[in-house]
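User: I'm writing a tutorial on reading structure tokens. Could you give me a worked example: one chain, its sequence, then its tokens, then a sentence or two explaining what the tokens reveal?
Assistant: Sure. Here is the example chain.
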Amino acid sequence: MTMIFEDLLIAYAQMKGAAVTFTKLDAGLLPQRNDFGLTWRDKVKLIPSQMIGLLACWRLHQQKAVPLTPNAMRYDLPPMQAPVMISRRFSAEERRQIGVAAKKQGAMTNDFFLRDFHAALGLWRKEQGLGGPEDWVRLVVPVSLRRPADRFLPAVNVLSAISLNRSPKTLGDRQRLLKVTLADMAWVKNRNLGYTFLMLLRMCRLMPGGIRRYARRTEPHGTAILSNLGQLFAGNALQNRARQQEVPGAVMEDFKAVTPFQKGACAALDAYVYAGRLMFDLNYDPRMLSEAQADRLMELFIGQLKLSVEEGSKQEVKP
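And here are its predicted structure tokens:
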């Protein structure tokens, strides 16, 4: 996404006479993008962990996820005209404090985002009078499979997704929620489970219409989506001293990201860093959520994140 937008900015800067050049990319890498840099030996070595991943995926989907709201399963509504978002911004100092607090608890900032958004979803659903003790709140998390060696790969999707299910009981216990989040993300990383969803799609493709049936299944795909985009536009040719994108006559002071919805998950939270600031954009479907409901969900998430910083300030750094 940012690669395309960056090229548009560079093209505009060139039109205005700026001495900037496009990033050199290699279109010859495109045919091999779905190999993910893996040799056939690497793929053979992955088979045991992917079998475990498929078993975990089957067990996960036995736990039926609930939609964010009952309206989130309605698709007889008129189409949206444009994305609708609620945004919050953190300063570079506030971002640093979040990182310090996460380190003190043996976590990464992304672990805080996962834990706190999950906790916010639990609180929000409780406030809305939704759900019961048997509900599973599923957070769908896109996972980038790009490697450092892919820096010359053109703008194409090289990603997968994982799902994290939580019960209302776990959502109400912040310490346990962080513990299971750390365990799940470590398991995904150590077992290379980012490839499992792609293997599942390839298995579906073996059957006529398999991917279509999987994509159009009637149950909710998730409750909400959280995507951590990392640092955007870092170190490119248009970055000024304030780490903002600058072209002749204009400076991009802010940026908003939009992650698409899935069935049942009518709210998607994007987290990213631009110009040193930590940014959050909640893209929501106004046909299924009111502005007040979406704003309350964002406020609950921000409140949980600030609580994480407060808790971290009272702890010593874990070795």
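What the tokens reveal: The beta strands are 84-90, 137-144, 159-166, 224-231, 245-247, 250-252, 267-274, 277-284. The radius of gyration is 21 Å.
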